[in-house]
Amino acid sequence: MTIWASRSSRRKLLNLKRKQWRVLIKELSRRGEGRRESGAFLMAPRSKKSLVTRIEYYDDLDPRCLTGNIHFHGLAFSKLWDICEIENLVVVADVHTHPGAFVHQSTIDAENPMVARVGHIALIVPHLATRSVSPRQLGVHQYLGDEGWTSWFGREAAARIGITTRFRL
Ligand SMILES: [Zn+2]
């Protein structure tokens, strides 16, 4: 790989390993059973927040949360924060699925960030994750606090999410 590859990977908001990405999509599909939305939190070390090293699925934290849409109950966050504290990680992003190709945020999505911290990323995966997904097909949304969200799609989304066989940071 050239130095350019390593420079461009530094600009990504999130980097995931290819295998990790495949497992994520497969798990979101399995958990949603092709008929309901599912989701997960993406976690990273405090010192390298673009490097996703752990994924926690919503329904593992809150078994009743997949109701068609997602109703994640506040109490389940304490489990998430415990994992972060024990493993010295921070939640950098969440991901959830939508039916069809629409990866814009719903009004509910935009008004209810899973983690209301400036810089938090919310990814939306199309087709309930029932087919393979490239970064180009994602909705990539970043929380800006009072200013709401900034969103990227297509090539712009792909420029911000790195799926690599090896991390080069
Ligand atoms: Zn949504």
What are the defining features of this structure?
6 helices; 6-stranded mixed sheet; binds zinc ion; disordered N terminus; two-stranded parallel ribbon; alpha/beta; 169 residues; globular
What topology does this entry show?
Blueprint: H1 3-11, E1 14-17, H2 18-32, E2 39-45, E3 54-57, H3 58-61, H4 77-87, E4 89-97, H5 107-111, E5 121-125, E6 139-143, E7 149-153, H6 154-158, E8 161-164
Parallel strand pairs: 1-8, 4-5
Antiparallel strand pairs: 2-3, 2-4, 5-6, 6-7
The structure holds zinc ion.
The spatial strand order of the largest sheet comes to 3-2-4-5-6-7
| Number of helical segments with 4 or more residues | 6
In percent terms, what proportion of residues is strand?
25-35%
Helix content: 25-40%
Radius of gyration: 15 Å
How far do the termini sit from each other? 12 Å
Instruction: Report the sheet with the most strands, covering strand number, pairing sense and barrel closure.
Output: 6 strands, mixed
The averaged pLDDT comes out at: 92
Task: Name the structural class.
Answer: alpha/beta
Number of strands: 8
Bound molecule kinds, no repeats: zinc ion
Shape: globular
Which series of helices and strands comes N to C?
Answer: HEHEEHHEHEEEHE
Poorly predicted spans: 1-6
